[in-house]
């Protein structure tokens, strides 16, 4: 079973994602801050991480780099989540180790399609 972590300070975004993706084939875990996410990744690395591009406590690029630096048998797929298309932010995230981006707010078809393009069962 795949584990997906949504790192976002918005409880609404986290809950919507959990409702869309949660099911028999995926467990969705939530982190309200970058520091919470880092602690959770150190304890049990998820398969997929969606990182808010505007976290108040840790820059998304720093969080991505820190996750990539952790020793783990799991190398998660990472997306940065943005409220607008910002090529510079996407490129910084990719250089840090992200595979791509997700625009928010998202709906069910958009989120499921994004996961399909990453070849992630959702």
Automatic annotation (TrEMBL):
Residues where 4-aspartylphosphate is found: 52
Q: Report the PROSITE patterns cross-referenced here.
A: RESPONSE_REGULATORY
Pfam families for the chain: Response_reg
Q: Per UniProt, which keywords does this protein have? A: Phosphoprotein, Transcription, Transcription regulation
What SUPFAM superfamilies has UniProt attached to this entry? CheY-like
Carries keyword Phosphoprotein? yes
UniProt-listed InterPro entries:
Bact_response_regulator, CheY-like_superfamily, Sig_transdc_resp-reg_receiver
Which residue range or ranges hold the Response regulatory domain?
3-119
Please give the name of this protein.
Response regulator
Per the UniProt entry, what species is this protein from, by scientific name?
Mesorhizobium qingshengii
